[in-house]
Amino acid sequence: MEDKDLYTELSSIRNLMERSAKFISLSGLSGILAGIYALIGAWLGYIQVYGNRLTLSYRDNYISEEEIIVRLFIIALAVLVLSLGSGILLTLRKAARKKQNVWNPSSKKLLFSMSVPLLTGGCLLLILMFRGYYGIIAPASLIFYGLALVAASNYTFEDVKWLGIMEIILGLVAALFPGYGIVFWAIGFGLLHIIYGSIMHFKYDR
Amino acid sequence: MKSALEHFDKAFENRIRLQVMSILVANENYDFNSLKELLEVTDGNLASHLKALEKEEYINVYKSFLGRKPNTSYAASDKGRMAFMKHLEALENLIRQQKQ
Questions:
Q1: For residue A3, which of B8, B91, B80 has the smallest C-alpha distance?
Q2: Distance CA A189, CA A197 (A)
Q3: ipTM of the modeled complex
Q4: A1-10 pLDDT, tens per residue?
Q5: I need a surface site. Which of A38, A63, B43, B98 has the fewest CB within 10 A?
Q6: Residue A52: phi, psi to the nearest 5?
Q7: pLDDT tens digits, residue range A180-190?
Q8: Chain B interface disruption, residue of A4, A20, A22, A112, most B CBs within 10 A
């Protein structure tokens, strides 16, 4: 066996072990887009609650009106749907470009491990919302989203784990500062996504 | 040189068999169609190599049905895992020898 053969043999093994166990068609660009949607959503939400003025120092607004809550809910839902939509679309495109199948054992495992904490968190948030605990929504959504990312990271890029851990820490900090939910929400879903998406895009997409 | 080649596993002489084994070692189990897609080989080719690995008792075969479609998945056996590790070690040793 020649030197070159040996090396290609070993690298093909490594490549296959990696490729078979991990889903690597996740698009970085979709992370950036999700971040932008979230920032727009947070800004719209901010206007709903505080009106069109920028003040973080003195606040006498409380979210209590039914109408505002419904509007916030719709904004959050729109952000979620848009983010998921562009995420799926861009990932499909990236997979097609790399000639990879999107529906393979690793993507199935990825989706399953992600959906357990996400669905749990989603249900809990809905329950809390109906019971009127609005203050817990921002920290809890960040924490459950972070947990979902950490779980999913076993089946995709290692970087996803770090994004997840950051989201969890941010969620815990947000729990310490009630009333600033929208700010933490904007940082977690907006800023972090944009940073993470850019890193992924330049690291893997090109 | 001879001492390193001693540990080379005949079952892994074929590249596809070695590749199948590396996928099965990295994953709990893997089904036939996903293996085929990943390795970009034909049905018959893959099936014959899987048969050979099965004969060596390196892999376990699980047959089930997904709806009405038969679905066959494969998992590395303990024996297969050991053989794969030994083979990798042999490859590494060979590289080390050549460097000297």
A1: B91
A2: 11
A3: 0.71
A4: 556 777 777 8
A5: B43
A6: -90, 55
A7: 888 999 999 99
A8: A20
- Closest to B20 in 3D by CA, of B44, B42, B36: B36
DSSP alpha helices (H): ranges in B1-100? 2-6, 15-26, 32-39, 43-55, 78-99
Interface check for A102 against chain B (CB to CB < 8 A): the answer is no
Tell which residue, A89, A105, A92, has the closest CA to residue A19: A105
> With pLDDT > 90 as the criterion, what percentage of chain A qualifies?
47
Question: Which chain B residues touch A13 with a CB distance below 8 Å?
Answer: 18-19, 22, 88
- A35: tokens are 């971040």
Query: DSSP character for A196?
Result: H
Our CA dihedral for A115, A119, A125, A131, rounded to 10 degrees, sits at: -170
- The answer for residues whose C-beta is within 8 angstroms of residue A192's C-beta and 6 or more apart is A35, A163, A166, A167, A170
**Would you say residue A177 has pLDDT above 80?**
yes
Q: Is B4 on the interface with A (CB under 8 A)?
A: no
**Residue indicated by tokens 């719709």:** A74
DSSP A178: T
Question: What's the rounded Cα separation, in Å, for the pair A52 and A44?
Answer: 10
CATH architecture entry for B2-99: Orthogonal Bundle (1.10)
Identity of residue A82: L
